[in-house]
Amino acid sequence: MILPVQLTSCAYRGELQPVVEWLQKGGHVDALDEGGYGLLHAAAHGGRLHVAMELLQRGASVDLRNTMGGTALMLAANVGRHAMVRLLLEHKASVDLQYGDEGTALMAATDEGHTECVQELLTAGASTELRGRDDITVLQLAETKGHATIAQLIRQHAAVPPAS
Fold first, then answer.
1. Would you say 106 and 138 are in contact if contact means Cβ atoms under 8 Å apart?
2. 33-50 per-position pLDDT tens digit
């Protein structure tokens, strides 16, 4: 069953009731709409924690990829939804998944200058060594974009030896 686009919009806007009703009628929690997005993608992008929590409780795949390869974590990080990033990480979202040459959730947050998201992802163990578009690291991206605070966070994270 294809997810109706209007339900994706409901999830984005935080309108939980129509989403729950559709699921109760047999809709699949990980269905994608015609644009290739799922309910959790929409809730994450919109920063709708109550919708995301309901979907996760109903078994939504935290690492479901949209048709472009993005996950809810990547979308939330890209638009600076710090609390959503934390929620998805608490539900074991894979922190280092990559999509195409665009990179990871950490690269998305860095690119847009979302310091709190970067900190959350680094704390969760996001790799600073993976390379994205043009074969650059997240530190190089932060420096290129002029995000000095983020560059400093990345340097500090890279200097701390991993816990054994």
1. yes
2. 999 999 999 999 999 999
CA-to-CA distance for 66 and 109, rounded, in angstroms?
18
Question: 35 Cβ partners below 8 Å, 6+ apart?
Answer: 5, 8, 67
**Is the distance from CB of 40 to CB of 62 less than 8 angstroms?**
yes
d(CA 160, CA 64): 31
Phi, psi at residue 103, to the nearest 5°? 105, -145
CA neighbor of 43 nearest in space, from 54, 34, 33, 35 = 54
User: Strand, coil or helix: what is 144?
Assistant: helix
Q: Tokens at residue 23, please?
A: 């699921």
User: Which token pair is 56?
Assistant: 């996760």
d(CA 108, CA 104): 6
Per-residue pLDDT at 161: 63
The whole model's pTM is what? Answer: 0.93
Q: Six-digit token pair at 61? A: 């795949």
